[in-house]
Each structure stands twice: as structure tokens, then as C-alpha cells.
Design a protein that fits this description.
The chain has helices spanning 11-66, 87-91, 104-111; strands spanning 75-76, 121-126, 135-143, 148-149, 156-158, 161-169. With 173 residues, it is an alpha+beta fold. It has one domain. It has a 4-stranded mixed beta sheet with strand order 1-2-3-6. Strands 4-5 form a two-stranded antiparallel sheet.
Length: 173
């Protein structure tokens, strides 16, 4: 006896192709999520490094301002607008610009690839709120490892900057 089978209609092939498409889309979605997670992690790392650099600058400048002699940070008179708010003050050279001390710790970390090549900076200015001149506002900037700026305008081209501020009350004017 010979059994009669119905003719193959290709249903199995269509089902397999549909399954392959579904698996392909699922794989692409998983890879996209993994890449996005990597980007987020890299951005968080960059921001953390810039924050640490700004904290380093802020602590260094505060210590320098509190020295009675030999400070490497110039404390500027109060201005309107505040000096730290004007970009040209951050690109100025010498005493008019930000303090750029010898950042040995930064340079060691930068050489290891942990920080970018741009060292952190700080600026100190007497507060206009306190007429005695005993209150100093310290502003510090730290940069992400990928930070670059236009050398003519000082505008950021890539990366980012973290800004931190503190207020110090000096014991004498």
C-alpha cells in the first residue's frame, strides 16, 4: 500500500525565514542596547574625571589663597560681571588669566591616560557682596579627556568642562 502525502507547500521554509528575521532583529536590538550602555559608561567616566580635576584645582587654589605669603594664585578685585563669567578672562595670560600652576599630580595621571592633556584651572575674586574684601569666590574648571577648544575664540569644540565654586572667608583683608 502506498500512502499518499499532500504536496509540500513550503510552509516550513517560510516559518524558518520568519524566525531568522525575528532573531536578527532581536540580536540587533541587544547589540544597540549594549553599545548605548558603553557610551553612557564612557560619558560618566569622562564627567567623573573632569569633576576630579576641578576638585583638585579648587582645593589647590583654596590652599594657595589661604597662604599668607608665596601664593601662586592672584586674588582679583570684585568686578561686574564676575571675572569667572567672562570667557576672555579664562583665555587671558599671566596674572589676568586663570591660575595654571604646575600640576604634577595632573601631569602624572595624564601621562597614564587617566586624564586629558588640558590641566584644570582656577580663578579667585573678592566678593562684591562683602565690602571688606575678606570673602573670596574661587572658581575652578576641570576638563574631560577628549576636551579641545578653538584657540582663537576659546569656544569648546569637543568634550566638556566641569565648573566648581567655593567661597572663602579670610581672617584679614
Amino acid at each position: 500500500m502506498h500512502k499518499h502525502h499532500p504536496p509540500q507547500q513550503g510552509v516550513v521554509l517560510i516559518v524558518v525565514l520568519i524566525m531568522l528575521v525575528v532573531i536578527g532583529f532581536s540580536s540587533a536590538a541587544v547589540m544597540r542596547n549594549a553599545l548605548n550602555s558603553d557610551l553612557v559608561s564612557a560619558n560618566v567616566r569622562s564627567e567623573t574625571l573632569a569633576t576630579q580635576a576641578a576638585q583638585l584645582a579648587l582645593a589647590h587654589c583654596e590652599q594657595q589663597i589661604l597662604l599668607t605669603t608665596g601664593s601662586t594664585v592672584t586674588t582679583h578685585e570684585a568686578a561686574t560681571p564676575a571675572r569667572w563669567q567672562t570667557l576672555a578672562n579664562w583665555t587671558a595670560e599671566g596674572a589676568a588669566g586663570p591660575a595654571k600652576p604646575d600640576w604634577a599630580e595632573h601631569d602624572n595621571l595624564a601621562a597614564q591616560g587617566a586624564l586629558g592633556q588640558r590641566p584644570p584651572e582656577c580663578m579667585a575674586e573678592k566678593s562684591s557682596i562683602e565690602p571688606s574684601g575678606r570673602v573670596v569666590i574661587v572658581t575652578a574648571r576641570g576638563f574631560t579627556p577628549d576636551y579641545t577648544e578653538n584657540t582663537t575664540t576659546g569656544r569648546v569644540e569637543s568634550g566638556s568642562t566641569v565648573w566648581l565654586q567655593s567661597t572663602l572667608r579670610l581672617s584679614s583683608p
